[in-house]
Amino acid sequence: MKERGLEPQSQRSGRARRCAEVLRLACLSAGVNGAQSEETALRPSEGQELLTPGTGSVADRLAILELLSLYAHLYDDYETETWATLFEKDGTFEISYLGGGPASRSVWSGREEMLEARKSRREKFREQGIGRHHYLSNPLVYELSGDSARVAAHLLLAAVAPDGKIDFETSGRYDGRVVKTPGGWRIQSWRFTPDGKPVSFADGL
User: Fold this and answer.
1) Residue 121 — φ and ψ, nearest 5°?
2) What's the pTM?
3) What distance in Å separates the CA atoms of residue 120 and residue 204, rounded to the nearest whole number?
4) In Å, how far are 1, 24, 115, 171, 175 from 195, measured between CA atoms?
5) Average pLDDT score over the chain
6) Looking at the predicted structure, is the pLDDT value of residue 151 above 50?
């Protein structure tokens, strides 16, 4: 049998680039990019993870639950800039629909980007007198250890028109990771998985 020689370096490099491109296209078709596909999943891969409370203190656990409540109260009270301080400066906010697709995932990185995405629509709601209420239920703090923890909660979002009419806009689930800072507990990574079909957020939230 004829022994196969090694490929020249140029051919190996070319093959590596082609493989990388195939992987990139596969990720894009699923609605993520290469860097995003490497992120640690926020949502538990199995229920057993939720049964790991961690070794943190009761005080830390209560502080994290208060952080989740502030998230809803500040946003609904149109205190959007104060709401953004609940996140780390380099924190991320993600909306990710199940099932994949080009419009299934939107990510905002850093406080400024989060605020910019919400600015115009929030001003419009305020002018029109529209109120919104984020009802967070079943909040759970798990894998609490030292200066980090994972959190989960369900959401029911209602919109209240000036005439008092109430519409339930969406429901879904929050998953996130929080970290302890000198200023208290803050959100490092936050993902909302809505129920229903994907909606584009190209024009902001």
Assistant:
1) -70, -35
2) 0.75
3) 8
4) 59, 27, 24, 6, 14
5) 81
6) yes
